[in-house]
């Protein structure tokens, strides 16, 4: 059965069957309206349709690219053209050179143990001396040292080494002092002259005490040179092991190749302090001048860390000038009498007037209370005067060994005398530069 269909271009027209439509198409039926128009059309027909451009999609402002010339570019609208190769000149934006001073590098040579435990390290290379047992070993029952001190050690023993109270307060103070005296130096020897304008105030004795305290607590080498042109007596404070003097060092200087050669010319005491004697012949002692001292000092600087110089009372002597030019710190010795304290103060004034003000401000005054007249003056007033001019003052107490003026046995000194010598040594060391950069 044929299906009736509706002709779209003829509204209201009757429905036709498929057969009727075919017959009409082949001309068997009379033409319908519009057939003349269809006959006039060509077989192929091209129709051009102008369509409006598609609207560009909106792009969020944060996705819009910004070109170098600050013109917004819409990534959603792209003009397509025939592929071609085009050369484009790109001009780099001009830059302005600005000289900015680089900040100075920060050097920290004093990291604490807590900083090192957090993984921080010093920016400067560390020396081998920094690898101490205190730094590397964890403190526990096995590595903690045996306590020193009567009661603390007794408790440690009776508890079968399970209860360690640590060192006593006295022992801790001694070890702290040792640590202060044992300060490590880099960059050559340090020179410390001991001087005053008046003889007989114990300058040579103070030199020997200072040298022994340093040599007893430190691991490096300490030497005391008797540079007194008026027949010094420093070598008489230790047991002599040689008759050589500073004159022999000057004479044999070209043949001294190492420390072993130098040690044959010095005397060494029980604390390992080396002492180089002065000339014993008064006629030759006057010949020891600035040039001779420089020869001796240059050799001593090769083999020792700290060089003490026992100076004479002639402050204007040429040896004194050479001594002060090398000095890193000085010790001024004063007696306990009025005139001795005044002459010591005048020594400071002379140094300030001759360009050694820095040495004066860093100086240590050793106040020898074993001289005559000490019990008649107010030592507190003398100390108050020097405190306004120098860094520190140390009292040296009376000791029978020192009063005898002969060989000094460091281990047999009174505890108070030994403590004073160690205090003097620690203060002197604290005033010395750690490295030559700090000088």
UniProtKB/TrEMBL annotation:
Locate the CobQ/CobB/MinD/ParA nucleotide binding domain: which residues? 195-323
InterPro entries, A to Z: CobQ/CobB/MinD/ParA_Nub-bd_dom, P-loop_NTPase, ParA/MinD_ATPase
> What's one GO BP annotation on this UniProt entry?
negative regulation of cell division
* Gene Ontology terms, MF aspect: ATP binding; ATP hydrolysis activity
Read off the Pfam families from this record: CbiA
- Bilayer-crossing residues are none
Q: What is this protein called?
A: MinD-like ATPase involved in chromosome partitioning or flagellar assembly
Which source organism? Answer: Compostimonas suwonensis
